[in-house]
């Protein structure tokens, strides 16, 4: 099996022996093979590493790493045989941005996504991978996160984000010491079934002129090259990172995407692969061939070579918005999506993706709204030129589901299909009429972002402008359909049906009212 010091990857002999060089700031870790399971600690966090820092961290606000003492004669990694990791059918949970800034937000997460995960089974093999921004800068909240993972029915693994750093560290070598003490190496890999999961550290810090940058660095690229060289070509490779390789939300930003994206693509050429990420607090299900202008302009990438999924955030829009009966805030995200987690359902080396909204068992897959001239006027009047709206400063739009007959020609029924993507289809039937195919607002064919009232999610934006949070003024998974101009005065029911790229269907109904 493969063992690494973060620079070099070696393979054990038949007795499990290996040799690796270490210095006084090294984490040695093993790649769990399929059919075996590493132990977990009292918080359910997978234990597959050994930190070696004899003198401990330099003085850090949040403690960093305690002295580990002298290097032992051997560092051995225990594991047991496991049918759960051997089976070729796996459920891999991907959770983005728990990002608690205070203790009460850990309680929101406990009542939301973690309550859902506690009620689920079937992921005891692949477990749950939390992809960065575990907390929001205050690393003293890490123990609260470990309390949350005790609720899981599978092992928890982590990778770091830009809010998981020891910002008072004087060098790059120690910026993740507190993270490493709590969760392990900043990058690593593991196998379940016919899946190889690679967790990457995608945050370069400090960076002159920037707070941080999306990058891997030459050391990690070399490790990735060696790691993948031991993976059979017939396995599915899941490449996980906090900052996305590429993203719709920040498609024009160099900082919020990965500098070495083309190098990663080259290393994965000829393999079945999918990239998963967080960071943007939005849901994105981007398919092979999707293209945005920013990717071409900044990185020279004309189209995605394989699917990229941005998981959304467990915190949603940083726990903003009105409180719900479940004991957590609405927290509608910048794309109009709701908080939740992504699951990769794997059979062999193929997968299907699904999104589970926090507090829901999986039925909630879309959000319907009405984009009327009155809504657009209200939106333009109330959306701040910069920043987020302050809760309680905007009066709600009166009768958002009403439209006058004279405005029918300028009105769309909108569908935010959370995991909608290229290859998805949305149809709208009003009062039982023949279903009409809705148009996706962002085709992902090499254009820039379409932004503004016409491209916004009315249901999300009204929630956000009134109760606070980011405003869903753009989305890569929004569809719209113009209303028939011959609708009579009165109430009408629209039935919306969404079919994803895998042929799975969801449906919702909405009642609108036409006035004189």
TrEMBL record:
InterPro entries: Calcineurin-like_PHP, Metallo-depent_PP-like, Metallophos_C, Metallophos_N, STPP_CPPED1
Domain Calcineurin-like phosphoesterase positions: 128-281
Residue stretches making up the Calcineurin-like phosphoesterase N-terminal domain: 2-54
Calcineurin-like phosphoesterase C-terminal domain segment(s): 311-505
GO MF annotation: an example: hydrolase activity
Domain of life: Bacteria
Protein name: Calcineurin-like phosphoesterase domain-containing protein
Lineage: Bacteria, Bacillati, Actinomycetota, Actinomycetes, Propionibacteriales
């Amino acid at each position: 099996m493969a063992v690494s010091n973060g620079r070099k990857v070696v393979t054990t002999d038949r007795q499990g022996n290996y040799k690796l060089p270490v210095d006084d700031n090294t984490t040695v870790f093993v790649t769990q093979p399929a059919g075996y399971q590493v132990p977990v600690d009292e918080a359910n966090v997978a234990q597959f590493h050994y930190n070696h820092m004899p003198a401990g961290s330099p003085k850090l606000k949040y403690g960093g790493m305690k002295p580990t003492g002298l290097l032992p004669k051997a560092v051995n990694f225990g594991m047991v045989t496991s049918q759960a990791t051997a089976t070729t059918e796996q459920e891999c949970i991907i959770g983005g941005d728990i990002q608690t800034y205070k203790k009460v937000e850990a309680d929101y997460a406990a009542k939301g996504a973690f309550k859902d995960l506690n009620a689920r089974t079937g992921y005891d093999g692949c477990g749950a991978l939390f992809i960065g921004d575990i907390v929001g800068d205050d690393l003293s909240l890490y123990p609260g996160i470990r309390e949350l993972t005790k609720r899981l029915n599978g092992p928890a693994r982590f990778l770091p984000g830009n809010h998981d750093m020891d910002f008072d560290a004087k060098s790059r070598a120690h910026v993740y010491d507190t993270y490493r003490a709590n969760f392990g190496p900043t990058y690593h890999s593991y196998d379940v079934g016919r899946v190889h999961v690679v967790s990457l550290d995608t945050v370069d810090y400090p960076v002159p002129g920037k707070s941080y940058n999306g990058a891997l660095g030459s050391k990690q690229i070399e490790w990735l090259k060696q790691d993948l060289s031991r993976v059979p070509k017939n396995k599915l490779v899941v490449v996980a990172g906090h900052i996305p390789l590429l993203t719709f939300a920040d498609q024009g930003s160099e900082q919020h995407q990965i500098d070495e994206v083309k190098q990663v693509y080259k290393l994965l050429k000829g393999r079945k692969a999918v990239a998963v990420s967080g960071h943007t607090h939005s849901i994105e299900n981007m398919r092979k061939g999707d293209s945005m202008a920013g990717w071409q302009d900044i990185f020279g990438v004309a189209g995605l070579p394989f699917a990229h999924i941005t998981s959304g955030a467990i915190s949603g829009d940083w726990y903003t918005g009105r409180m719900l009966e479940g004991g957590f805030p609405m927290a509608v995200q910048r794309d109009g999506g709701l908080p939740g987690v992504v699951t990769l359902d794997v059979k062999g080396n193929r997968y299907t993706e699904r999104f589970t909204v926090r507090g829901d068992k999986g039925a909630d897959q879309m959000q319907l709204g009405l984009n009327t001239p009155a809504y657009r006027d209200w939106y333009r009047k109330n959306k701040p030129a910069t920043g987020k709206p302050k809760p309680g400063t905007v009066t709600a739009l009166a009768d958002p589901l009403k439209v006058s007959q004279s405005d029918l020609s300028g009105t769309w029924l909108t569908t935010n299909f959370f995991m909608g993507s290229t290859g998805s289809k949305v149809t709208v039937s009003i009062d039982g009429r023949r279903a009409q195919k809705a148009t996706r607002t962002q085709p992902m064919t090499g254009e820039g972002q379409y932004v503004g009232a016409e491209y916004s999610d009315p249901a999300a934006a009204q929630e956000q402008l009134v109760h606070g949070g980011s405003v869903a003024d753009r989305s890569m998974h929004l569809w719209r359909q113009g209303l028939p101009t011959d609708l009579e005065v009165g109430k009408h029911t629209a039935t919306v049906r969404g079919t994803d790229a895998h042929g799975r269907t969801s449906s919702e109904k909405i009642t609108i009212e036409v006035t004189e």
